Amino acid sequence: MTREGFLEIAPGLLRPDWELPAGVGALLTTREGGESAGPFSSFNLGGHVGDDPLAVAANRARLRGFLPAEPLWLNQVHGAAVVDAEACEEVPEADAALARSGRRVCAVLTADCLPVLFCDEAASVVAAAHAGWRGLAAGVLENTVRAMGVSPQRLRAWIGPAIGPGAFEVGDEVRATFVAADPAAAAAFAARPAAGKWLADLFMLACLRLRAAGVTRISGGGVCTVSAGQRFYSYRRDGTTGRFASMVWLDKC
């Protein structure tokens, strides 16, 4: 069953509508089909949000059954660091991870920030990045492209659900940060009646950054977490809430 550009393969598990080369897999979770209760209902995968640790463990165990390898969970800090998923023994402080074999699944957790997945056309490297506005401004996408070590023209990127342009209100300082780096970013901000307030389009900002880095094969984008309350967690909408995962991997050892 196709819903908003996703193929539902099981309750709470979606396959992105993303043209992938043979040997690359990708998966996205929703808030359905898990063990968590209350504001975390029900498939919360975030262990840092106040949910029952046993429920999170049960949800991660269920997810693991659909994956070829163990995910690398990151301690995401809205920065721009990229790690090699296969070289990490502990949970690293980073906002992106890459892999060159099938020994680990690259994963990011979000609830309004952008999840961005990458692969190359030869299925030799994959990556996942967590990009809120701070991470975007800090260069997490450009750092990920650089760390993958292949020509950007050979990369494919997919942008997952995030807070949409009708819901993401920001101040002058956010707009100024992006426009100072790229004047074209002004098109991603719509003025609000309140002085100094803007509606920001994270999807457009990510596309501008990716294209500037040489990545032109970009899919996804446009699915708003705030307006899809039954399917996705949203921190801006709910405050106390869970996290969903976006994952990519290589089907090789």
Question: Notable features of this structure?
Answer:
253 residues, alpha+beta, CNF1/YfiH-like putative cysteine hydrolases, seven-stranded mixed sheet, six-stranded mixed sheet, 6 helices, 16 strands
- Major sheet details: 7 strands, mixed
Percentage of residues assigned to helices: 10-25%
Number of helices: 6
Using DSSP, what is the number of strands?
16
Secondary-structure content class: alpha+beta
| Averaged pLDDT | 95
CATH class: Alpha Beta
Based on CA atoms alone, the radius of gyration comes out at 17 Å
Shape: globular
How many structural domains does the protein architecture include?
Answer: 1
Q: List the uncertain runs.
A: none
Q: What is the string of helix and strand elements?
A: EEEEHEEEEEEHHEEHEEHEHE
The fraction of residues assigned to DSSP E strands is: 25-35%
Secondary structure: elements and pairs:
Blueprint: E1 2-3, E2 6-10, E3 13-16, E4 24-29, H1 53-64, E5 70-72, E6 82-84, E7 96-99, E8 104-110, E9 114-120, E10 126-131, H2 133-138, H3 140-148, E11 155-159, E12 169-171, H4 172-181, E13 189-191, E14 197-200, H5 202-212, E15 217-220, H6 235-238, E16 244-250
Brief characterization of the structure:
This protein has 253 residues and is of the alpha+beta class. The protein is 21% helix and 29% strand.
Q: Please, could you describe this protein's structure?
A:
The protein has helices at residues 53-64, 133-138, 140-148, 172-181, 202-212, 235-238; strands spanning 2-3, 6-10, 13-16, 24-29, 70-72, 82-84, 96-99, 104-110, 114-120, 126-131, 155-159, 169-171, 189-191, 197-200, 217-220, 244-250. With 253 residues, the chain is an alpha+beta fold. The strands form three sheets. The protein has a seven-stranded mixed beta sheet, with no helix packed on it. Strands 6-7-10-9-11-15 form a six-stranded mixed beta sheet. The chain has a single domain, classed as CNF1/YfiH-like putative cysteine hydrolases (4-Layer Sandwich). The chain is globular. Strand 9 (114-120) and strand 10 form a beta hairpin.
